Amino acid sequence: GLASSEPKEGEENLRSPICCIMGHVDTGKTKLLDCIRGTNVQEGEAGGITQQIGATYFPAENIRERTRELKADAKLKVPGLLVIDTPGHESFTNLRSRGSSLCDLAILVVDIMHGLEPQTIESLNLLRMRDTEFIVALNKVDRLYGWKTCKNAPIVKAMKQQTKDVVNEFNMRLTGIITQFKEQGLNTELYYKNKEMGETFSIVPTSAITGEGIPDLLLLLVNWAQKTMVEKLTYVDDVQCTVLEVKVIEGHGTTIDVVLVNGVLHEGDQIVVCGLQASINLGPIVTTIRALLTPHPMKELRVKGTYVHHKEIKAAQGIKITAQGLEHAIAGTALHVIGPDDDIEAIKEQAMEDMESIGTPICVP
Ligand code: GDP
């Protein structure tokens, strides 16, 4: 169950890194998520992956299994990887500008046939503004003329199977895209040639249809996160939590879908979220968590509208929260927990400061 995120003896007390997928429309963000989720993989092989609220969780064992061909003996120190299911999500427009900081790292998807496009640059600017590290997935390599499919293969292995013409076209397009990134003030390089990660952003060629490069992408994400973000990923007691969506659910009233980035949430916790009354007045909502819900782990058993209840949930997870008074909660803002020794007024103020720092205008339909 969810308690398996507890570190085993000798392991470091790290939470799962949180990753989001960004990029121009039609570059393959949705398909890439499907592909790493293994939706297209035969049943059984996708072992351990769980669908969460607004996110998909990949346990470390699953990542290890799928990256075996890369012969990376690197020990996975994080319990897994949480990927936010935002592509195509309506609330993402809201979150894009406000909450991209909820992600520790991002996959920026670029179509190898199209190069950088307007929303690629928009995403780039958001990532830079938020200081979020990212990896470029240079997607649709299978569309290179004459590409020979090597299903789910590491990219170097797949490239070795290609004709000289395919390799030439690949190199030409790659060079062009590296130049386009340079015009945006960014150094990028193929990940296995990148000697200075951090200074130079890594490019992983992928196909979201045939799966080439997906093992590389997964391994790179996890390795990089645990190598460079230990402090950020170290488990803390203070709750760090972002509201993704506000939704009315039959039988539960208005609920909020959140990503618990760090810390623990309990049933009965007193919380503060930002609210908007009568479309104009910003004000903190103070309420109590009635239920912490997650979908049933097994898709087959999932009955529409039913959830698993939890007494407590430890980060990082996607969770649905039910509580009174959430009708006017605002997506993209932080959720605060009032501890036994905390001053409610101070926390209310803090919640509203977050809100102000995000800045208005806010459009309410
Ligand atoms: P999004 O708008 O970025 O989420 O893009 P989608 O995932 O919806 O993909 C847009 C289109 O490109 C769809 O028709 C996909 O089937 C196709 N597509 C996505 N990834 C690939 C890929 O790696 N190779 C090929 N050939 N087509 C792809």
From TrEMBL:
It comes from the Eukaryota. Residues 14-230 form the Tr-type G domain. Coiled coil: none annotated. Belongs to the TRAFAC class translation factor GTPase superfamily. Classic translation factor GTPase family. IF-2 subfamily. This is Tr-type G domain-containing protein. It comes from Brassica napus (Rape). The lineage of its organism: Eukaryota, Viridiplantae, Streptophyta, Embryophyta, Tracheophyta. The chain holds residues 669 to 1033 of 1125 of the full protein.
